[in-house]
Amino acid sequence: MNKLIYSDQIAELVDIGDTVMVGGFLGCGAPETIITKLIDAGIGEFHMITNDTAFPEKGCGRLIANKLVKKLTASHIGTNPETINQMINNELEVELVPQGTLAEKIRAAGAGLGGILTPTGIGTEVENGKRKIEVNNKEFLLEEAIEADVALIKARKADTWGNLAYRLTAQNFNPLMATAAKLVIAEVEEIVEVGELEPDEIVTPHIFVDYIVKSSKRGDRT
After folding, report:
1. Is 104 helix (H, G, I), strand (E, B) or coil?
2. pLDDT digit string (tens) for 108-147?
3. Above 90 in pLDDT, residue 219?
4. How far apart are CA 201 and CA 18, in angstroms?
5. Contacts of 201 (CB under 8 A, 6+ apart)
6. Alpha helices in the chain (DSSP H)
7. Domains of the chain from N-terminus onward
8. Cβ atoms < 10 Å from Cβ of 205
9. Cβ distance 158 to 191 under 8 Å?
10. Of 41, 63, 39, nearest in space to 52 by CA
11. How far apart are CA 45 and CA 42, in angstroms?
12. In the chain, where do the E strands start and end?
């Protein structure tokens, strides 16, 4: 059940036009090696789902800077001028989603739910085009679950089966995304044998992980 692959194989697993979730929070906990290999291969036209677009030279922001994304679903884009420029020039379709709502939409997909009810966005532009549901005399928006063809995530350590352990806040969206995609590729800094991870260390069970790839450099500690 060894799931380890070479980084050069990543391009064979991701298709042009895929809906791709990318972990990270302002680049912390982002799968930099995987991102580099996608840039090198020129695979793009992605619908990218991510918390934010980090910076032009860091994290998933590099996919934006290399114009490999055609649609973006995120909660924040302000730290990446390239994202803003492409949006203004109609080169990139951007859907902004409140951060908590985005997390719960991903979580819902992982749990097999159709969506969630949230009061966030009521009375704002967020509610446009969305169904309102009243529960106990309170209005909620129906936010549909969101899933991906591929999740590209980052962990600190994995065993050869694909059980994953993370480091502190570099965990961020990575475990959620691992549950909400048809294919999950995890970049890790250290690979150990099965049984070497303490049970309490494991956040993402191996059943969610299809492939693991070793980071080519240390980068952010995760």
Report:
1. helix
2. 999 999 999 999 999 999 999 999 999 999 999 999 999 9
3. no
4. 31
5. 157, 165
6. 32-41, 61-65, 81-88, 99-110, 174-178
7. 15-96+147-214 (3.40.1080.10)
8. 14
9. yes
10. 63
11. 10
12. 4-5, 19-22, 46-49, 69-74, 93-96, 115-118, 132-135, 138-144, 148-159, 164-165, 181-192, 211-214
